[in-house]
Amino acid sequence: MTERRSAVGVRRCGRPLRRSASYECPSVHRTGPDEADRTDGQVVFPARRGRSAPPGGLTGGMSGRQLIVLGTASQAPTRHRHHNSYAVRWDDQLVLFDPGEGTQRQAILAGIAIARLTAVCITHFHGDHCLGLPGVIQRRALDNRSSGDGREPEPLPVIFPAEGEVYFDRLRTATIFHDTSRAVPRPVPAGTPERPAAPPGVVAELGPSARISAAPLSHRVPTLGYRIDEPDGRRLDPALLARCGVAGPDVGRLVAQGWLDTPTGRVTVDEVSRPRPGQSLAVVMDTAPCEGAEELARGVDLLVCESTFLHRDLELAQRFRHMTALQAATLASRAGARRLVLTHFSARYDDPELFAREAATAHSDVVVAHDLLTVDVPPRRSS
Question: Which candidate in 92, 128, 229, 365 is catalytic?
């Protein structure tokens, strides 16, 4: 099913169009296939060199940067919504956010291999955001034992609010199993709603194109929000390369060492390239509007935000420190977020169109999530 639009200009349910796999110069690291990179005829390289992502991301023919919604329910699952949980494909990284109950099965339905996870991020330890963690860790352990390739499994960082470490320990050891998951706890101070911790900044570096940062949010328990950023880089300009007489294998040498001696003199990378903005994605779950949420959402390409309530129930949202659809859209608009994904819905609402219409009054690009929806990160901003 292709993407559709309602009368209020809001993106509706349905799978985005698949994109064909892209090709790249083998001597140049490509940091994220998207429309801007593929259609402008320019070769991309990042600020730092590193391992290339496979063409099309983790699965052939798909965008390298996507949100996969595994569940959208808050507090308790319903007939149509699993506990909220989200996977993010980011080139050769696969990050799982808030594995609620049933995450392991939802991952199977979505084609997400838990063995491929490179990080897990937990915003807080209310059950709808972490009850699936035991299954994820135990499945990881099982896959590590049965791989049979003789290689040492990669460590799996699990990032969470430090104040909830006792709950992480209980979840990890909830049942008897042989723990070969290599899950590595990464507790990060969040503070309390009354006295939030100082923003911890970068909490994980996942390769050259994925930097995870965190900020405290304002919920009833210690809570963190997260953001994935690709560092800014530069894009080679074919016209400037031609003007300087650089072609063929010399392009790779220029990128590798940052300069190249030619018959007419030395050419540097900056002389034949233009700035290339990095892409970004933020996850803002259970919180009242707060400074940390704005910090995470500022200028982000894709904002995944809770909208537990409609604005007609603002009193409930304030009492339980959640956001309404209107508040989430206002946050996205004020922060300059390009695309907003609404999720984490209360079971009291059956009609997702209500969230769509409310959010559309404050933001022009809104996706109302449903279970197993895939949302592409918007194409790279022009420099």
Answer: 128
